[in-house]
Design goal:
Layout: E1 2-7, E2 12-21, E3 24-29, E4 35-39, E5 46-55, E6 58-67, E7 71-73, E8 77-82, E9 85-96, E10 99-101, E11 103-105, E12 111-116, E13 119-128, E14 131-140, E15 144-146, E16 150-153, E17 156-165, E18 170-171, E19 177-179, E20 183-190
Parallel strand pairs: 5-12, 13-20
Antiparallel strand pairs: 1-2, 2-3, 3-4, 5-6, 7-11, 8-9, 9-10, 9-12, 13-14, 15-19, 16-17, 17-18, 17-20
Length: about 190
């Protein structure tokens, strides 16, 4: 194995061959042949952080692997491992001991509260004169929805009038779009 390091003999950054590995590395400069020791770089230790993954009314206790120097923020997208399964998730809350915070360094995180975003169920309300029809559509979390476009769900054709997002705002202008995992509810009128 070869690494680039500073040679005390050449007084330059040169390529070195790793001769032996123990607590330190014994290396040989390929330019001048000088042998010397270099401190081994410490590998970041992976942390297994407890994660609660919510998916449409059910929750599972899983884990997320983070490095010691990682920082988590509400809204970050990570991968949670639940036994043999792996899910794309979005952090909805971070627990550090007894407190809930919006941002934290990985070693201080007790639990990450998340929701699955790979496959989501989108709630749809279609207005048809005096009646409102509730529908549910299971779709990929990255599936786009556009205000003003026509969709068909459960043999009902409708035009999206506005989109209510999970983080608060309503999207009402024709042409505005978002992806399924950000949608709280789709409102439409029957076509």
């Amino acid at each position: 194995m070869f690494i680039t390091a500073s040679c005390p003999e050449c007084r330059d950054e040169t390529e070195h061959e790793v001769v032996a590995e123990s607590r330190d590395l014994l290396v040989r400069c390929t330019a001048c042949g000088h042998h010397h020791r270099i401190k081994k770089e410490r590998e970041p230790r992976p942390l297994q952080v407890r994660a609660i993954v919510s998916r449409e009314g059910t929750s599972r206790v899983c884990s997320i692997e983070l490095a010691e120097e990682d920082e988590c923020t509400v809204g970050d997208h990570l991968v949670a491992e639940c036994g043999d399964d792996a899910f794309g998730v979005e952090i909805t809350s971070i627990e550090c001991g007894e407190k809930r915070v919006n941002r934290a360094k990985a070693p201080s995180v007790t639990t990450l509260w998340t929701r699955a975003i790979e496959t989501v169920v989108v709630k749809i309300s279609i207005h048809d004169g005096w009646h409102t029809h509730p529908l549910y559509k299971e779709c990929d979390g990255e599936e786009p929805f556009v205000v003003g476009e026509v969709y068909t769900v459960a043999k009902k054709k409708f035009r999206i009038t506005h989109l209510k997002l999970r983080d608060g705002p309503l999207m009402r202008k024709d042409g505005w779009k978002t992806v399924a995992h950000r949608v709280k509810r789709i409102y439409g009128s029957r076509v």
